[in-house]
């Protein structure tokens, strides 16, 4: 049972939820004095922080990248701009970007930020998230970076919350971990903030109290029916519980609010497959094909690959469409997976 719990937390931690949960608030960046930098670059970073606080998907991320690149053009030694640009580039992992974008380019920006300001909390936190990604797999360094971020900004509830969970799952410091998590909840106590209820739900979910977890995710969605983190985690928990039919509306709503992310489409396809609704499954995987085409950059070296062909082939074979299923499967095998 503990392995199953860990599996749920692993998926949450590796999913878009963790990135979206990293809302950058006023404490996450040491506000620079406008007198020390170009005022227009300072204003652009303030705009970026505002977008991150209310982040709602790919369009926001495109705005972030553009705004922050402009800020860096104006002020080349502005650490917060580099850190936030690194965060925005990492978010591209959820839109089919290659590792050259979400890992290499993001880390280049974050390392530049840390070279300029070694104690910048958002840079330390973001580097921790990237290192914790299973494709990077530097979990011990990720834990140390999160601890440094909290040391640099002791009242930052997001770093406190994430460090608590990392200690809970990866060390024997259970008492310290629980205290950090509870203290972060106290600091974040805002009955009008959906993220507050998401954090409470995550605690109940960890200890397998799924009814209360769903109740708190529901409260988050009452406050904001379009809240991506709450939609994502509700969908994920229902999938884990085998409640595929109940999960579908949340995955659909997630897709409607972030149409350029492949993850809600991926879940929809899996829900329909689990329910043996093969025609719906087929149609969903074909949406993934359209999305992959739309996301292709101009440079062939950065080709976007989304995991849909083998799943479409399976849905087709279940409907007796064997010839097309074989063609799709062969096409999948001929591609280089990035």
Layout: helices, strands, pairs:
Blueprint: H1 2-14, H2 16-21, H3 39-53, H4 58-74, H5 79-91, H6 99-116, H7 121-132, H8 139-152, H9 157-170, H10 174-187, H11 194-206, H12 210-223, H13 228-240, H14 244-257, H15 262-274, H16 278-295, H17 309-318, H18 322-334
Descriptive account of the structure:
With 338 residues, the protein is an all-alpha fold. The protein has helices spanning 2-14, 16-21, 39-53, 58-74, 79-91, 99-116, 121-132, 139-152, 157-170, 174-187, 194-206, 210-223, 228-240, 244-257, 262-274, 278-295, 309-318, 322-334. Helix 3 runs antiparallel to helix 4 and helix 7 packs antiparallel against helix 8. The radius of gyration is 20 Å and the shape is globular. The chain starts with a helix and ends with a helix. Mean pLDDT is 82; it is low at 1-34.
